[in-house]
Amino acid sequence: MTPSPVAIAAYRRKYERELFERVIPFWLQYSLDRERGGYFNCLDRDGSLYDTTKHVWLQGRQAWLFAKLYRTVESKPEWLAAARLGVDFLQHFAIRPDRRAYFSLTEDGKPIQLQRKIFSECFYTMALAEFSRASDRPDLLAAARDELATLWDWAYDWSYVGRPVLAGQHPAQSLAVPMILLNLIEEIAPDDASEYAVEVEDCIRRILLHVNSDEQLVYETVAPDGSQIASPQGRLLNPGHAIEAGWFLQHWAQRLQREDLSADAIAIVRWSFARGWDDEYGGIFYFLDAEGYSPTPLEWSMKLWWVQCEALYAHLLNFSLTGDRDDWDAFERVDAYCFEHFSDPKFGEWFGYCDRQGNVTHRFKGGPYKGCFHVPRALLLCWRLLQALETPNTQSVA
Amino acid sequence: MTPSPVAIAAYRRKYERELFERVIPFWLQYSLDRERGGYFNCLDRDGSLYDTTKHVWLQGRQAWLFAKLYRTVESKPEWLAAARLGVDFLQHFAIRPDRRAYFSLTEDGKPIQLQRKIFSECFYTMALAEFSRASDRPDLLAAARDELATLWDWAYDWSYVGRPVLAGQHPAQSLAVPMILLNLIEEIAPDDASEYAVEVEDCIRRILLHVNSDEQLVYETVAPDGSQIASPQGRLLNPGHAIEAGWFLQHWAQRLQREDLSADAIAIVRWSFARGWDDEYGGIFYFLDAEGYSPTPLEWSMKLWWVQCEALYAHLLNFSLTGDRDDWDAFERVDAYCFEHFSDPKFGEWFGYCDRQGNVTHRFKGGPYKGCFHVPRALLLCWRLLQALETPNTQSVA
């Protein structure tokens, strides 16, 4: 039995309230540094500041989120101003002449850490792209496109960002790279991506290298030809990442009107959920080992907010395309877990980290890797999709 | 009431059996790579291999352990051969002409990873020093001394090992550095350290910078002048590290016959245990925040084997010096936790990781950071000390 229109409407209202009354207000109230620019990231349960460090991933993501709200929900000046606060800070302090972006900055913008990775640069670019449209600043879109071109050169050879190349390293590709690049192209070219046709196909091809249909598994790290690497790194499953990659792919499958890719994307989400869900305590694991060994990361069995956030939207998107009750049930299962464990009834926003049993382990709402991004993005995407499901004659939002 | 001689003898026998019948045999049986040299580190619960990567910290530490057993317990040829396997492998493959040592190698010695830290070099040096005595190879002691001289130059300026120096970084000193250097000098110069008198005093001075007697806290990271850094990094407590530093200091207090330092060392262990012990579930936490915020590392509330191992010996050492029942009780409390949660009755060796509640989270016995070191070192040190406590007219082993 498919969900009734009444049930869908109830979820739509729930997500609307959570997003606009309990999540966005938290960040607007506590994170904006109107004095020095940018956002405070490290916010305790009640929004109070426990560290003034500004993390560049989170600066970029929050600027993107507020620009997206302004452009696609309502032209509220305070949302545009919030986005501008981040973009200006990033442009002043995060990006360097060589196009590298720092990982973290002091509250007044002095660099603390530079990672030998490309993700700070990706989220910087994502912010520029969305803000360029929200603020009608084509120069920022041009800057985003230039940065993407550089990232494209660096993406599969991190010696460009300072990683030593050593003789014993197994050639490897991380799922994170093609999926974030594919998402970046979606953000840079939301309407006409014909100019990026080659890059889009390359990202899709590379993502699919991680998918083993026979085993119904998505490997986080594979050899460049897609073969498996015989090591804990090669056996590592990151179901949250795989699920996120699934809905990134689905958006392109819809844009390119490619049914085979759509079927792949649906399967990636379903397989990763089936494998990643903890039947004993609920929630999706952070990491697993494909052959059942203990994953070496200490936090493998924890339940992280972003993993569950990505699953919310991915299952709902599957349901919107398949009408399959199993996809709806999966959405409801993750929804129940999130609102029981992560949503904070007292101060708004969500907790980020639970142990395997579902106890909150970290009371803060913002930390070095948790900002204003996965929770509001998932709520926004689900809210939009629930709206479309309420009035089924509208276009898909994907 | 102090423990009876019968109780002490029972513990002595327990530690003797655990070390020689259940821990050392595990590593001798499963870890030696007689074909290519060095040790396999990544051993599953039953000793089977789940990854062939050889981790240099653990190569150095295991070589040190077997050389120590050979030299101080019994001249068993198999122990010397086991130590040689590691030292030869390290000398062939881990150390570079510029005195840097890799962090990890393939099974046949090709480099995989080079950290921008100095700890691989420290454990390499530790292995050379002990093996030089076990094998009567003064050239290796000379090499260890040369490496230590280089490490001394690098220790407080990691730009020498590739860390970028950035304008927003707060000048900071990690407790790990002076404590490992002090331990290295103990290993390099166990009898006459007069040549290292300046370095020993410098290490002691720097370690004590981390101790705040008013608060009865040991900070993991402080400014170079010992002042507190106002950030999560500056508030971080690592009680296992502090406890280990406590017994390192106590060994020097005994050597230098310095009562004030001995009192400091006793207090460091007691304070860190009082603060670090989890009254709800038992075991010592991995990390805490001095002001009660949630520590940002995801694994902060886990119970790690090495933390408890260091506490076993530190409390027993305190008791041997103070005769105080509280120190003995602390030893017994940690002993009960270890043998209930970590010691594996089926296959020998100890598990490494429990969640806060005390459930084993990782079934392996050896991993990227867990090798043949903390468990046998703690058992060996406790066994020796329990022997001395059984026959109180002998010299202290400290």
TrEMBL record, chains A, B:
InterPro entries for this protein: 6-hairpin_glycosidase_sf (IPR008928), 6hp_glycosidase-like_sf (IPR012341), AGE/CE (IPR010819)
GO process annotations (BP): carbohydrate metabolic process
SUPFAM superfamilies from the UniProt entry: Six-hairpin glycosidases
Enzyme class: isomerase
Entry's EC annotation: 5.1.3.8
GO molecular function, one term: N-acylglucosamine 2-epimerase activity
KW Isomerase (keyword) present: yes
Protein name: N-acyl-D-glucosamine 2-epimerase
Pfam families, sorted: GlcNAc_2-epim (PF07221)
Entry keyword set: Isomerase
UniProt keyword annotation of Iron-sulfur present: no
Family according to the record: Belongs to the N-acylglucosamine 2-epimerase family.
Gene3D superfamilies reported in the protein's UniProt record: 1.50.10.10
